[in-house]
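Posting for a labmate who doesn't have an account.
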Amino acid sequence: MIAPNEFWLRLHQLAEAYSAEGLTPAERSANIIDQFAGMPPIAQRELLADLRHVADRCPDLYPLATAAATNSTRRRDAG
């Protein structure tokens, strides 16, 4: 079993890694895809599967996390 906050720590690391790839979204995308294009096909297939998994399943987390943060703030302010 993974540590309870592992998802959030890895998400933070991913966000930092993304930001470090360039100054603009276009520059970051170009750098990331250039690196991807240089990988062996087997690695590309695995990473595409990972990217699809995250892209398909994580968009629903943002509104849920936002609601949880709002509820936490309300409870803190009320208590």
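Reply:
Got it, the structure tokens are right above this. Residues 20-78 form one domain.
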